[in-house]
Amino acid sequence: MKLSIDLKVATKPGWIKAVLADFDAFLMDHADCERKASSSAMSFIAKYPNRTEMIPELIETAVEELEHFQEVYKLMEQRGVQLAHKMPEDPYIKQLMKNMKSNVEERFLDRLLIASVVETRGAERFKIVAEHMENLELQKFYKMLWISEAKHGHIFVKMALNYFPEEEVYERLHWWMDKEGEIVDNLPFRSALH
User: Fold this and answer.
1) Number of CB atoms found within 10 A of residue 75's CB
2) Closest Cα partner for 51 from 128, 118, 96, 108?
3) Can you give the pTM of this predicted structure?
4) Over the stretch 123-160, which tens digit does the pLDDT of each residue have?
């Protein structure tokens, strides 16, 4: 059952050109994104331990994202690419977070929906990377990631539906998809996932 909604704005071709022009930089950013995604899933558990319905899936998601990090790191090692000493700020995530509501319950909903939006965008972009890879191993890897990220997009909406009325969840998710489209449209292309 599809729980997330489609992106309102497709990634423009200039993005994949930037990625292919410096694929090692993309791998570094991708590794950072996987670490952050695993950490984010665990932070939901730390912040909302009373929301027991979502904890098993959050643990599973955190482990899966950490496994993705491990796989990206293996690719980096093969190419002689090191992790950065400091993870640079992600302008895409920063702009999304600026739009979160401050009320405790509304912020909880926004955090879940932002996670869904980010995973949905990640799935779209991993699909684009897979389609542009000549290396069959990389093609297969990014296809696997695209499928996994799409699943994660659904998981966070399902979690939101445990705690909020369906109408409220989808109304806010549509709002987030519109906002995310504006953000993506206005960000410069760089060799990074976002």
Assistant:
1) 17
2) 108
3) 0.94
4) 999 999 999 999 999 999 999 999 888 888 899 999 99
**Whole-angstrom distance, CA of residue 139 vs CA of residue 119:** 19
The answer to whether the beta carbons of residues 51 and 104 sit under 8 Å apart is no
Q: Which domains does the chain have, with CATH numbers?
A: 13-80+87-186 (1.20.1260.10)
Asked if residues 17 and 188 have their Cβ atoms less than 8 Å apart, the reply is no
| Residue where the block lists tokens 């491990």 | 70
- Would you say 130 and 142 are in contact if contact means Cβ atoms under 8 Å apart? yes
CB atoms within 10 A of CB 43: 14
Segment holding 96, helix H or strand E: helix 91-97
